[in-house]
Amino acid sequence: MIGRVALLCLAAFLQGCVPQHYTTIHANTVNLYLQAPQATSVQFASSENWYALREATKNKDGFWMINGLAKREFQYFYIVDGKLLLPDCRFRQNDDFGTANCRYLP
Q1: Which residue has better confidence, 88 or 11?
Q2: For the segment 33-45, what is each residue's pLDDT rounded down to a tens digit?
Q3: I need a surface site. Which of 1, 29, 30, 81 has the fewest CB within 10 A?
Q4: What are the pLDDT digits (tens) for 55-98?
Q5: Neighbour-count burial for 77-87, b at 16+ CB within 10 Å, e otherwise
Q6: 3-state helix, strand, coil in the chain (%, to 5)
Q7: Which CATH superfamily is domain 20-104 in?
Q8: Are residues 12 and 3 in contact, defined by beta-carbon separation less than 8 angstroms?
């Protein structure tokens, strides 16, 4: 898996940008990755568990990981160093509070 992350980063670097956010799928689970190498804390919230905050884990490449999410539709966002972050995601959905959430669609 680390090899795949390295290949994704290398391909993005060669194209002139590094992905800020991406997903990988393994059998029936989804893993999310957020690039924030300078961050000291990253939390993840999703509709999968009523937006309870979950601590992300930082890898050596500066990506913060959330592993083992169910492979079904959900909405989500991040809290990076205490500030809301909605990464550049493919699908978004407005919420009831005047903002939007990223939306994962399997």
Answers
A1: 88
A2: 999 999 999 999 9
A3: 1
A4: 999 999 899 999 999 999 999 999 999 999 998 888 999 888 87
A5: bbebeeeebeb
A6: 15, 45, 40
A7: Immunoglobulins (2.60.40.10)
A8: no
- Identity of residue 26: H
Which amino acid, 13?
F
Tokens of 50: 């009523």
Query: Tokens standing for 43?
Result: 């939390």
Q: What is the CA radius of gyration of the chain?
A: 14
Identify the pLDDT of residue 101.
Answer: 93
Contact call for residues 90 and 19 (beta carbons, < 8 A): no
Q: Where are the domains of the chain?
A: 20-104
Q: Has this prediction a pTM greater than 0.85?
A: no
Euclidean distance between CA atoms 57 and 30, whole angstroms: 15
CA dist 97 and 75 (Å) reads 14
